């Protein structure tokens, strides 16, 4: 593996809260403590993912209050880092998380609302398909409608 790739993986692990000490020595301080520089990346990571979840689940956010949503999103981000590179693909398991998140135990409907919002997000970002022409339907047997 290249030195750059090793460095990137080390920063990634540190941002996720794993093994910060092994990468801090590779970060130039330049007037700011290297751990503080790393904290800037960690804050941006959490803020970006929190904003992403808020954009995908706006109704859930309104139902529980923005502060509580921020708390739930933060807890989710900690246990569910992104697995895809596109932010609009992040958060598919958030409804399941809410279903088992103890502070949401009395909000039985919340996970279902989140599932609906995820489906809306998926449809919004689905590839565009070419519409079928009415003349093409003439060749389909009525029993296959």
SSE layout and pairing:
Layout: H1 3-15, H2 21-24, H3 34-56, H4 58-64, H5 66-79, H6 94-100, H7 110-124, H8 134-137
General form: flat
Average pLDDT, to the nearest integer?
A: 89
Uncertain parts: none
The assigned structural class equals mainly alpha
Verbal overview:
The chain is an all-alpha fold. 60% of the residues lie in helices and 0% in strands. It contains 8 helices and no strands. It has helices at 3-15, 21-24, 34-56, 58-64, 66-79, 94-100, 110-124, 134-137. Helix 3 (34-56) packs across helix 5 (66-79). The longest helix is centred in the N-terminal third of the chain and has 23 residues, at 34-56. The protein is flat, with a radius of gyration of 21 Å. The N and C termini lie far apart (55 Å). The relative contact order is 0.09.
Keywords:
single chain; 145 residues; mainly alpha; 8 helices
Summarize the structure.
The protein is mostly helical and 145 residues long. It is built from 8 helices and no strands.
């Amino acid at each position: 593996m290249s030195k750059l790739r090793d460095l990137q993986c080390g920063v990634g692990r540190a941002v996720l809260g794993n093994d910060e000490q092994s990468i801090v020595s590779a970060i130039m301080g330049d007037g700011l403590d290297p751990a503080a520089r790393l904290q800037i990346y960690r804050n941006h990571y959490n803020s970006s993912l929190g904003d992403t979840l808020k954009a995908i689940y706006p109704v859930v956010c309104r139902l529980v209050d923005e502060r509580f949503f921020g708390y739930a999103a933060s807890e989710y981000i900690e246990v569910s880092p992104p697995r895809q590179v596109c932010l609009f693909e992040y958060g598919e398991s958030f409804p399941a998380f809410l279903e088992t998140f103890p502070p949401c135990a009395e909000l039985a409907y919340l996970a279902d609302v989140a599932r609906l919002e995820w489906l809306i997000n998926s449809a919004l970002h689905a590839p565009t398909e070419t519409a079928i022409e009415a003349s093409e339907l003439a060749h389909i047997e009525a029993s296959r409608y």
